[in-house]
Amino acid sequence: MEEKTLSDKQSDTQITMPPSGSIEMSDNCSSLFKSLAKAQTEMDGIVKDAVNPFFKSEYATIESVINAVRPALNNNGLAIMQFPTTTDRSAGVMTMITHESGEWIRSWYRMPVSKQDTHGFGGAITYSRRYAIVSMLCSGAPDGDDDGNVNAKETKQPKKD
Length: 161
Prior knowledge:
By secondary structure, the chain is an alpha+beta fold. It is built from three helices and eight strands.
């Protein structure tokens, strides 16, 4: 995937969006990693609190994911931030975990958008937010959490004779 450059008009800072899945971190992360390890032992399980009518399955909303991880992060001097990113055909987030010491780690995650409208981009961003948090924190994605119908294309079954 090609890199995109964003311009911050107020400071003329150039921000380069690396390929999806890229990870960057501060020079030293020892305090962050120590606090993150402690926070992971305190995290509640993620509750599947919604039903996807397309796949007829339960899944965890972004609210459920955040509610499961935020208290443990905050209790250990950690915060999580997410910023939407888009290209012409993809959407996602840059997720950053920061520590009170100033240490940080961030990851970029984008996915293709099959429907080029507000709902398509918004759904891809929300879906990306959930999976980025779960993967960065190793908080255990709920089994069968597959509400990705925003980016799934419906396939027609052949007509049986």
